[in-house]
Design a protein that fits this description.
Chain lengths: 204, 204, 204, 204
């Protein structure tokens, strides 16, 4: 158990905070260890200046197994991270942030999928096709977060998504990847697509 | 009297300035001491590079009790800070800034409340409800600032606001909190909501 | 002749560049010395990384009197700075930048004045009135820059402007002030007003 | 072969990344050496933190001649850089990035040229005319990148473009210049023009 992803998560959180994606303590980041437990940001911390004690380590059942600061509790959205790691065993990082654009575009979705624009940047989400027709799954928001997690699990167990990202309405995007670096890249692409879609509606 | 909040206020002002919320010396920040006096930014200082002598300490009646630089005078809006500390005895920090979005959305308000969008980010202002129906109180701007302060006092003594924030029309937002860190978080959420509301109107 | 404003101009240019107001070498900054000569940025330099040799010193007639690098020539717009210093003898700094918003709003002007919004931020340009009715003078752009300068001189000799700023159509804003710090504050307010006016048109 | 442009490319990439023009590993930068080979960014690297081993050196025929890290391969778009260096023998740097605004404006183009606005900033692309009437050539995007390169070569061999820049639809801008510094300046102007054009459509 020597690998500690917290320094990478601290750096990533600061960058996302500076982009305006983690304002006012919003959002949560996690990374998995070889034993399938994962470090996740504690609830209510400003994401621009996390320290290693601002994390909680939980196992895949959501049980806290390491708590550097006893005043902390895991993010309220830990169940979504559990679900992602259970659905995608290769995923080692899961990032959830709340941009203005993600929230706005989520209200424009018809049905339960956001249609992504067929632009070159989709290659960054692993889509190498001419004129790709790809969607990002969207989910209803609930005050009861485990209910969101359950709906994600139900849907992804029936059909895996086109891209490693999902959007909760009024509640931001979640991405996952094999590495923390790849998760950051996916998040940048997802937020780029939201900005593109919102700006496209302003231009029309 | 050992606690000195000025270093935290200097850091906060620089961050808000970099966000574009304190351009051209606009806005003012204060933090209260245990004796109920408070340090407030002096008038006319660039908020990106404050020093400890760019503050004035006043008591709850607005009387100057410490003036590191005799050329300074307290912010023209000190009376609003006094009013906030009088209305909310637990408040220890009060931040007032002028973003473009706050000013624009203030002109769209019908009546004297801004209706806030029912998005997840409202949790950051302490609202934990499904589909919350919450407003931010708005006030008319007057050249005579004590008149603004009086109208705030009158209204909040009748009914406390849903959220720890108020908006003065054409004149930016004011937030307050138990700690400087919490005040910064509230401000980030308030400005996020203004950006959301303005962008939503551009998309419609 | 010990005072050298170049370090302040270098810092200001870097900040304006980072705001997106001096892209691709655009814009020019100057500051006056006690002998009425002034240092102005040389033509064609990236404003994010100026050095002291990237300036030229000229007198009020536009004659070069100090040239740290013989490869340089003064900004193509030196005649506008001369005109400002001649019209406003108290001015010690003159800043000219090209934001997207300034250029866009310049095309919306009817007549030869931009009507400024009556928002609190106008105090930062020295306007302390209830519901102020204030304009910023606008000028036509010409490839022949001395012709722009002449039109500025003609108009300001008839009537001084309401605010220490002017806008050239398709060509950005120019501000002037007693000090470099005040000039930066005025520029921030001017650009804030342009952003406000453009966003207001997007919301309508 | 002592000149190594990679440090300049690393700095440029970090700046463009911070502007949001190289999100999620998008884009590629190259610079030519005296022997007509060029260093180009390797495929799939985050542009905010390149190192010297994140580049590949290829000759004008696209053959890899230096590979500091054997796991790397040249950018998928190397053929476009080859074409630029072949068409414009004086070009020593070629930069390709993907901003939201470039992608959006590319979809608004009628025919195969983007009409540029007649604003002062065009001087930064070498256009010194009163009311210039200038276009930027646009090209269709293809999954098969060498096909894009071929169409660029065909068109530019018939008629050189007005400005040292081209736009691929849904796929961002490419600029070229005699020096890395000039290429950065051209890119800043191009992106400024895209932002201007998009904002102009939002204001209308």
């Amino acid at each position: 158990m020597n690998y500690d992803p917290r320094p990478e998560l601290i750096t990533a959180a600061r960058q996302f905070y500076q982009q305006g994606w983690m304002m006012g303590t919003a959002g949560n980041l996690s990374a998995k260890l070889p034993d399938n437990s994962f470090w996740i940001t504690a609830s209510g911390k400003s994401k621009g200046k996390l320290t290693e004690s601002d994390f909680v380590r939980v196992n895949l059942d959501g049980k806290v197994i390491e708590l550097p600061d006893n005043n902390n509790r895991p993010s309220a959205e830990t169940s979504i991270h559990q679900t992602i790691y259970q659905c995608f065993p290769n995923a080692h990082a899961c990032y959830h942030v709340h941009s203005v654009e993600a929230n706005l575009i989520s209200r424009c979705v018809k049905g339960d999928n956001l249609v992504l624009p067929a632009i070159e940047m989709l290659k960054g989400l692993g889509i190498w096709e001419e004129n790709p027709n790809v969607v990002m799954p969207t989910f209803k928001n609930h005050l009861d977060v485990p209910r969101i997690a359950q709906e994600i699990r139900d849907r992804f167990s029936r059909k895996p998504p086109d891209v490693p990202a999902l959007l909760i309405i009024d509640h931001g995007v979640t991405v996952w990847a094999d590495t923390t670096e790849q998760a950051a890249n996916y998040l940048e692409i997802a937020e780029y697509l939201f900005r593109y879609l919102i700006a496209a509606r302003q231009v029309e």
